[in-house]
């Protein structure tokens, strides 16, 4: 399989970047986007050249580390899949693949395709936790929750925090990410104690680092975890609930 690649090269945060062109004549359809970059980097190293920097970890679609953009779409052509699970059979022989980092003001470039996504961490630091009494674990039967609500919460907990939603959004909003976390933690018993404080703090941080959501919907289309667009509504809903109930909630 032959591919023409345009890969972003940028030495550092304060350096100018540009696309570097190269051709691959021996790609395999079953390769993932990351394996293609591994293949390219292997040849560059053999030639004594600097490989391209990109982030990856588990390569099982769980960690959310492998964020990059292919032909203008976060992660790649396949719907709701991370870059490590995007296979080259989604493209045709002779295609041009333009590979670059996630583009967002909230994600400054560190090097090549590696970006700083600590803005998402700052949102989580404001409320991505639950308060429990230390000591002996409570009996599971004392926490009553119906199956449907538990499944709804866990569906939103599937968010891997990759940042594709932010990169896909024309406004650079992170409402799908924040809404997923607020929905997950507000539904389960252990997350209800600081529900109001969590909503106020997380949304306040969200508005400092990210753009305003205009419901374009691109975020849900590229989300590897399949978080529904309805999660965005939790940002306004949980924040309004916190304002109505007051500071003690």
Automatic annotation (TrEMBL):
Q: Which GO terms describe its molecular function?
A: 2 iron, 2 sulfur cluster binding; 3 iron, 4 sulfur cluster binding; 4 iron, 4 sulfur cluster binding; electron transfer activity; metal ion binding; succinate dehydrogenase (quinone) activity
The answer on whether this UniProt entry bears the keyword Oxidoreductase reads yes
The catalytic activity of this protein is classed by the Enzyme Commission as 1.3.5.1
What biological process terms from GO does the record include?
respiratory electron transport chain; tricarboxylic acid cycle
Gene3D superfamilies, sorted: 3.10.20.30, Alpha-helical ferredoxin (1.10.1060.10)
Please name the InterPro entries in this protein's record: 2Fe-2S_ferredoxin-like_sf, 2Fe2S_fd_BS, 4Fe4S_Fe-S-bd, 4Fe4S_Fe_S_CS, Beta-grasp_dom_sf, Helical_ferredxn, SDH/FRD_Iron-Sulfur, Succ_DH/fum_Rdtase_Fe-S
Q: Which residues, if any, are the signal sequence?
A: none
Report domain 4Fe-4S ferredoxin-type positions.
150-179
The alphabetized UniProt keywords are: 2Fe-2S, 3Fe-4S, 4Fe-4S, Iron, Iron-sulfur, Metal-binding, Oxidoreductase, Tricarboxylic acid cycle
**Needs which cofactor?**
[2Fe-2S] cluster; [3Fe-4S] cluster; [4Fe-4S] cluster
Family from the record: Belongs to the succinate dehydrogenase/fumarate reductase iron-sulfur protein family.
By its UniProt entry, which NCBIfam families does this protein fall under?
Answer: dhsB, PRK07570.1
Q: Give the protein name, as stated in the record.
A: succinate dehydrogenase
Which organism is this protein's natural source? Corynebacterium frankenforstense DSM 45800
């Amino acid at each position: 399989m032959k591919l023409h690649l345009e890969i972003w090269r940028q030495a550092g945060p304060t350096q100018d970047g540009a696309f570097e062109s190269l051709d691959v004549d021996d790609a395999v359809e079953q390769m993932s986007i990351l394996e293609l970059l591994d293949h390219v980097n292997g040849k560059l190293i053999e030639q004594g050249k600097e490989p391209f920097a990109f982030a990856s970890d588990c390569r099982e679609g769980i960690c959310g580390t492998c964020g990059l953009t292919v032909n203008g779409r976060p992660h790649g052509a396949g719907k709701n899949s991370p870059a490590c699970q995007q296979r080259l059979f989604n493209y045709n022989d002779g295609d041009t693949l333009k590979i670059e980092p996630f583009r967002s003001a909230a994600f400054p470039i560190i090097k090549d395709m590696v970006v700083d996504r600590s803005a998402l961490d700052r949102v989580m630091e404001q409320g991505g936790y639950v308060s429990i009494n230390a000591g002996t674990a409570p009996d599971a039967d004392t926490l009553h929750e119906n199956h449907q609500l538990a499944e709804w919460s866990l569906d939103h907990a599937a968010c891997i925090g990759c940042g594709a939603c932010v990169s896909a959004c024309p406004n650079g909003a992170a409402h799908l990410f924040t809404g997923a976390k607020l929905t997950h933690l507000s539904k389960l018993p252990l997350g209800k104690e600081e529900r109001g404080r969590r909503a106020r703090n997380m949304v306040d941080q969200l508005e400092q680092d990210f753009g305003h959501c205009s419901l374009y919907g691109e975020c849900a289309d590229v989300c590897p975890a399949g978080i529904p667009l309805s999660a965005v509504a939790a940002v306004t809903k949980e924040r309004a609930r916190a304002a109505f109930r007051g500071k003690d909630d």
